[in-house]
Amino acid sequence: MPISYTDQQIREKAAFLGLIEDGAELPRHLRSRVVAAMAHAETAERADPTEPWLAQEIVIQPGGAVLIDGQPFPWLLTRQPMEISLDPDGTSTVRLTVMAAAVQIVQPEPRHESE
Protein backbone atom coordinates (compact mmCIF):
# COMPACT_ATOMS: atom_id res chain seq x y z
CA MET A 1 0.00 0.00 0.00
CA PRO A 2 1.66 3.28 -1.06
CA ILE A 3 1.66 6.06 1.50
CA SER A 4 1.72 9.76 0.82
CA TYR A 5 1.82 12.70 3.24
CA THR A 6 2.22 16.39 2.61
CA ASP A 7 5.11 18.31 4.17
CA GLN A 8 2.56 20.14 6.32
CA GLN A 9 1.12 16.85 7.67
CA ILE A 10 4.62 15.62 8.50
CA ARG A 11 5.54 18.88 10.28
CA GLU A 12 2.27 18.80 12.27
CA LYS A 13 2.89 15.20 13.38
CA ALA A 14 6.51 16.05 14.33
CA ALA A 15 5.27 18.95 16.45
CA PHE A 16 2.63 16.70 18.06
CA LEU A 17 5.36 14.17 18.90
CA GLY A 18 7.47 16.95 20.44
CA LEU A 19 10.31 16.63 17.93
CA ILE A 20 10.07 20.26 16.79
CA GLU A 21 8.32 23.45 17.83
CA ASP A 22 5.04 24.17 16.05
CA GLY A 23 5.79 25.82 12.69
CA ALA A 24 9.51 24.94 12.70
CA GLU A 25 11.23 23.04 9.91
CA LEU A 26 11.76 19.32 10.47
CA PRO A 27 15.41 18.16 10.21
CA ARG A 28 15.91 15.68 7.36
CA HIS A 29 17.27 12.97 9.67
CA LEU A 30 13.93 12.89 11.58
CA ARG A 31 11.60 12.90 8.57
CA SER A 32 11.61 9.13 8.00
CA ARG A 33 10.87 8.49 11.66
CA VAL A 34 7.85 10.79 11.58
CA VAL A 35 6.56 9.19 8.36
CA ALA A 36 7.01 5.74 9.95
CA ALA A 37 5.02 6.88 13.00
CA MET A 38 2.26 8.19 10.73
CA ALA A 39 2.16 4.96 8.72
CA HIS A 40 2.07 2.95 11.94
CA ALA A 41 -0.83 5.04 13.23
CA GLU A 42 -2.78 4.26 10.05
CA THR A 43 -1.98 0.56 10.45
CA ALA A 44 -3.06 0.67 14.11
CA GLU A 45 -6.40 2.18 13.12
CA ARG A 46 -7.04 -0.89 10.97
CA ALA A 47 -5.76 -3.33 13.63
CA ASP A 48 -8.07 -6.02 14.94
CA PRO A 49 -9.78 -4.58 18.05
CA THR A 50 -10.24 -8.13 19.35
CA GLU A 51 -6.54 -8.10 20.31
CA PRO A 52 -6.81 -6.35 23.72
CA TRP A 53 -3.12 -6.99 24.49
CA LEU A 54 -2.05 -4.81 21.56
CA ALA A 55 -1.95 -1.06 22.25
CA GLN A 56 -3.35 0.91 19.35
CA GLU A 57 -1.15 3.96 20.08
CA ILE A 58 1.59 4.94 22.51
CA VAL A 59 2.41 8.64 22.80
CA ILE A 60 5.53 9.76 24.66
CA GLN A 61 5.28 13.46 25.41
CA PRO A 62 7.96 16.00 26.32
CA GLY A 63 8.58 15.81 30.05
CA GLY A 64 8.13 12.03 30.12
CA ALA A 65 4.34 11.62 30.17
CA VAL A 66 3.24 8.42 28.44
CA LEU A 67 -0.25 7.86 27.02
CA ILE A 68 -1.37 4.40 25.98
CA ASP A 69 -4.49 4.41 23.80
CA GLY A 70 -5.16 7.95 25.08
CA GLN A 71 -4.94 7.00 28.76
CA PRO A 72 -2.09 8.07 31.08
CA PHE A 73 0.31 5.24 31.94
CA PRO A 74 -0.61 4.59 35.59
CA TRP A 75 2.85 3.80 36.98
CA LEU A 76 5.93 5.89 37.64
CA LEU A 77 8.60 5.49 34.97
CA THR A 78 12.31 5.95 35.59
CA ARG A 79 14.42 8.38 33.62
CA GLN A 80 16.24 5.48 32.00
CA PRO A 81 16.48 5.67 28.23
CA MET A 82 13.53 4.21 26.38
CA GLU A 83 14.09 1.86 23.46
CA ILE A 84 11.66 2.63 20.65
CA SER A 85 11.42 0.55 17.49
CA LEU A 86 9.23 1.97 14.73
CA ASP A 87 8.22 -0.62 12.16
CA PRO A 88 6.04 0.82 9.38
CA ASP A 89 5.19 -2.68 8.13
CA GLY A 90 4.01 -4.13 11.42
CA THR A 91 3.88 -3.69 15.17
CA SER A 92 6.27 -1.20 16.72
CA THR A 93 7.64 -1.63 20.24
CA VAL A 94 8.51 0.58 23.22
CA ARG A 95 10.72 -0.70 26.02
CA LEU A 96 10.72 1.34 29.23
CA THR A 97 11.56 0.94 32.91
CA VAL A 98 8.78 0.82 35.51
CA MET A 99 9.62 1.54 39.16
CA ALA A 100 8.30 -0.91 41.77
CA ALA A 101 8.50 -1.14 45.55
CA ALA A 102 8.61 -4.95 45.28
CA VAL A 103 8.91 -7.52 42.52
CA GLN A 104 7.70 -11.10 42.77
CA ILE A 105 8.61 -13.78 40.26
CA VAL A 106 6.29 -16.78 40.37
CA GLN A 107 7.73 -19.93 38.88
CA PRO A 108 5.53 -22.75 37.62
CA GLU A 109 5.28 -25.91 39.67
CA PRO A 110 7.71 -28.58 38.42
CA ARG A 111 6.02 -31.17 36.23
CA HIS A 112 6.55 -34.84 36.99
CA GLU A 113 7.32 -37.12 34.08
CA SER A 114 4.34 -39.33 34.89
CA GLU A 115 1.89 -36.51 34.03
How many runs of DSSP E, i.e. beta strands?
Answer: 5
The ordered H/E elements are HHEEEEE
What is the overall number of helices?
Answer: 2
Strand content: 5-15%
- The class by helix and strand makeup works out as alpha+beta
Low-confidence stretches: none
Topology:
Elements: H1 7-16, H2 28-45, E1 58-60, E2 66-68, E3 71-72, E4 83-85, E5 93-95
Antiparallel strand pairs: 1-2, 2-3, 4-5
Which descriptors would you attach to this protein?
two-stranded antiparallel ribbon, elongated, three-stranded antiparallel β-sheet, 5 strands, about 120 residues, single chain, alpha+beta
Q: Any overview of this molecule?
A:
The strands form 2 sheets. Strands 1-2-3 form a 3-stranded antiparallel beta sheet, with no helix packed on it. A two-stranded antiparallel sheet has the order 4-5. A hairpin with a 7-residue loop joins strand 4 and strand 5 (93-95). The protein has helices at residues 7-16, 28-45, and strands at 58-60, 66-68, 71-72, 83-85, 93-95. The protein has 2 helices and 5 strands; from the N terminus they run H-H-E-E-E-E-E. Helix content is 24%, strand content 12%. The chain is α+β, with helices and mostly antiparallel strands and 115 residues long.
